[in-house]
Amino acid sequence: MSTRVPAPLLVLGGVISVQFGGALAATLVPQIGAAAAVLLRLLFAAGIMLAVARPRLSGHSAQAWRTVVLFGLALGGMNWAFYSSLAYLPIGVAVTFEFIGPLLLAASGSRRPRDIAAVGAAAVGVVLVSEVTHVPLHELSWRGIALALLAGAFWAAYIVFSARTGAAFERLDGLTLAMVVATAVVLPAGALNVEAIGLDHVLKGLGLALLSSVVPYSLELLALRRLSATVFGILLSLEPAVAALAGLVVLGQVLGGAQLAGMAMVVLASVIVLGSPRPRQESPSDLTETGG
């Protein structure tokens, strides 16, 4: 069936799944805290992946294990920081700031005027999204902005170690083991609020695992067999816009005109940088993967 569905639609489906999962997370974080929400997501996602992938534990080098541990740390940190930012920022704004991480990673080392101009446009877009131009500085959510930028930095690290893990482990083994590591990272903090977790929270956590991990990873896995890096990068660039739509539909979050204009600038910059052919042959994972 997957071969009959155009690959771009599979990636777009993954993007929509992730961002509506983020909107669901925004309803859970105020109830049980970011760490507990991330813990529920990762516990269910890791359990599902372990059952499906059944990763092999033997036969890996020490370097491979170091790589997958770093991948797991990046994965856990990315989710924790992003979910924490949702307590302070609308999801569309948070994803826009977070997307700066993979955008800068993709543009790093490039001397092409087009990429440099795109990064500059993204910087202007971020200023508009932050509302720094017309909101008093003391009213800005600096903590939320810092957390979203931190999530973006972890996202960039996630991309780097995802590619290395994919080269060191077969199939989905590396991703599955990294999810176990990420779960262990957030377990101490998430367990502190375990008494606040009820059945409805558990069900939301399962929804998060499916919407933000299992479904998008599966769709991307199918799509990347038939999709160029250029098209993949362009589709991933739509994440801030899809996040804003999810925030509007699920949470009733309405962004101002300046914020929407800034988001459009970031999306355009991402299309230019992530969707540009590279000097060498790259796999899509060299550009970016679903985060948040």
UniProtKB/TrEMBL annotation:
Domain EamA span(s) in chain numbering: 143-274
InterPro entries in the record: Diverse_Substrate_Transporter, EamA_dom, EmrE-like
Keywords associated with the record: Cell membrane, Membrane, Transmembrane, Transmembrane helix
Lineage top rank: taxon: Bacteria
Localization in the cell: Cell membrane
A Pfam family: EamA
Protein name as catalogued: Inner membrane transporter RhtA
Protein's organism: Marihabitans asiaticum
